[in-house]
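B., you asked whether I could sanity-check this one before it goes into the benchmark set. Here's the sequence:
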Amino acid sequence: MGEEFYNTFYKAFTSESSETSIVTPKTITKAINDNIKHDNFYGTYSKPPKLENIEDYTWWKERFLNWTKAYAHESWFCLEFGYNRPINDKHEEIHLNDLSDEDKRKFSFEQKMIALIQQSITDDILFVSS
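And here's what the prediction gave me:
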């Protein structure tokens, strides 16, 4: 009997492979939950890290500031240095329509930062703090 040829890649890339992992709804759910936890902890390009427990505030604050510096730096300037809406001679805030383009931009960035903070804090913590 001659030397036999064994193809080690036979069935390696088909559904008939003997070493396929069994995917169940439970394993899919666990993977999705792990990804959501990761995204909430570190944030993504489109959403900041989420504060889920008040005990994690110190860690969250650092991650949130780093995220805003990277993805919403104009809004971070408003948080860091403040923004005061211009006032007129009567010490009243100038109406939004009458603001200069630069003041409209700064106002918009401030409003975005407020929205980012509200988005990144769970409702139960947000309502307790207000």
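One thing to flag: The longest helix spans residues 101-120. Otherwise nothing jumped out at me.
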